[in-house]
Amino acid sequence: MQITVGTEEGETFQKEIEENSQLIGKQIGDEFEGSIVGLDGYTLEITGGSDKQGFPMRKSIDGTERTRVLLGEGTGIQEEGKGVRKRKSVRGNTVSAEIQQLNTRVVESGDKSVEELLEEE
């Protein structure tokens, strides 16, 4: 699983992790310890992600399954005009083994910078 970490300064860093069992079952908006990713002292919040086929996670859909929903705006759709809706496939808001990329943001910072901690490994 690839974890993308966004900082308060607007920078993003990517980290590949093998063991993701501690993240399975968490939902968009949940916070977790950064030590899972190698960021000791940090707290991260899940903001989204996508599965192995590229379908985005959507906060308004409960569960882990991929489903086709009628969307007018938001994640997974480009607005084409006022009142236009489209049926799109999106993934639920819960992390599962099917998730390939997980987007996070820093909620609480640690002693060292994100860049220093991720480059040490």
Description of the molecule:
The chain has 121 residues and is mainly β. Helix content is 5%, strand content 36%. The chain has one domain. It has one helix spanning 114-119; strands at 2-6, 12-16, 31-33, 43-51, 66-71, 86-91, 99-108. A 5-stranded mixed β-sheet has the order 2-1-7-4-3. The two termini are 17 Å apart.
Pick out its properties:
elongated, mainly beta, 121 residues, two-stranded antiparallel ribbon, single chain, 5% helix, five-stranded mixed sheet, 1 helix
Please give the largest β-sheet. 5 strands, mixed
End-to-end separation: 17 Å
User: Which overall shape is indicated by the principal axes computed on the Cα atoms?
Assistant: elongated
Level of helix content? Answer: under 10%
N-to-C series of helices and strands: EEEEEEEH
Q: Please tell me how large the radius of gyration is.
A: 15 Å
Short description:
The mean pLDDT is 88.
Question: How do the strands and helices of this protein lay out in sequence?
Answer:
Elements: E1 2-6, E2 12-16, E3 31-33, E4 43-51, E5 66-71, E6 86-91, E7 99-108, H1 114-119
Parallel strand pairs: 1-7
Antiparallel strand pairs: 1-2, 3-4, 4-7, 5-6
